[in-house]
Write a structure and sequence with these properties.
single chain, mainly alpha, 7 helices, globular
Length: 160
């Protein structure tokens, strides 16, 4: 990979993990907003709600805790190595964030959300100098999002 030292960027520290987890909690704060009963009335949230409902229908009932943990960790680590470790290091923050958004094609609103999330993850990488912070943020978000997805998918219809 053209001499990029990805190994050096993966050394964990308590600070990087804490910063990343806090960032992931911030990203996850949008989940109850997107799934609120009033969200479809807000144009900005309508597309995100459609994407979320599609994911909930496709994945929700089949997710179990081991699946959630596996998906959260593996996707976070692999995507952060690729998008931040390789693409951002080689082509910059804007390019890697746009690519991150485009490779989450659940509709225009979700692509826009993923692009903004990519900017946040890339900023964590730039600010800390380690892939651990964005990987921790990404894993925290994925873990909470998938658990929330599972919870919503298993609720009785009148409460969903």
């Amino acid at each position: 990979v053209r001499g990029l030292d990805l190994g050096a960027a993966m050394h964990p520290s308590a600070d990087a993990i804490a910063i990343g987890c806090a960032g992931g909690l911030g990203f996850a704060a949008i989940l109850p907003i997107v799934t609120a009963s009033w969200a479809p009335r807000v144009r900005l949230l309508r597309g995100l709600r459609r994407a979320w409902n599609g994911l909930e229908f496709a994945l929700g009932n089949d997710l179990r805790l081991p699946h959630i943990v596996f998906l959260a960790l593996c996707s976070a680590i692999s995507e952060e190595v690729f998008f931040r470790g390789i693409l951002q290091s080689e082509f910059g923050l804007v390019f890697s964030s746009a690519a991150f958004g485009l490779l989450h094609p659940f509709g225009f609103a979700y692509i826009a959300w993923a692009t903004v999330a990519g900017l946040g993850l890339g900023t964590l990488f730039s600010g800390t100098g380690t892939l651990v912070a964005p990987a921790a943020a990404h894993a925290t978000y994925n873990l909470l999002a998938l658990a929330y997805l599972r919870l919503r998918a298993t609720r009785p219809e009148e409460y969903a």
